[in-house]
Specification:
- The chain is α+β, with helices and mostly antiparallel strands.
- It has a domain at 8-78.
- It has helices at residues 55-62, 71-78, 109-116; strands at residues 8-13, 23-27, 34-37, 49-50, 65-68.
- The structure holds zinc ion.
Length: 122
């Protein structure tokens, strides 16, 4: 696997240019479009690099996917819905108040509890 391949795999395709049918199609973390690297000739591929730069071309590549990892991705890339915003990378969820650190225990809290439970050495 190429070192630069790090996006999430959405499915496995047949290379549009050769008969290699284990082409891992990934979604770019950078731009949200699909991409794939066909392996070198010695590994059964043609070493073509597929870098769609639009939703339209990503969908063209998606049509070569024969095995999808997630039905949601399949619906997203092959569905009939308008592709608007499809390429925007997901934003991290806003931090909620419940994500805040719990308040620090007051000094002496546990010592007091230990004393009440008869665990202290006083
Ligand atoms: Zn190929």
């Amino acid at each position: 696997m190429p070192a630069q391949a790090k996006g999430r795999i959405v499915g496995v395709a047949k290379c549009p240019y050769c008969d290699f049918d284990k082409l891992e199609v990934r979604v770019s973390e950078k731009n949200g479009f699909l991409y794939a690297y066909c392996p070198p000739e010695g590994d059964g591929g043609c070493k073509c690099q597929h870098f769609p730069r639009s939703v339209t071309s990503s969908r063209k590549l998606a049509k070569f996917i024969h095995t999808w990892r997630d039905a949601k991705d399949r619906a997203h890339w092959l569905g009939d819905k308008a592709p608007a915003k499809a390429a925007a990378p997901a934003k991290p969820p806003a931090k909620k108040e419940t994500d805040a650190e719990p308040p620090a225990a007051k000094p002496g809290f546990f010592a007091k509890a230990d004393k009440l439970l008869g665990l202290g050495d006083e």
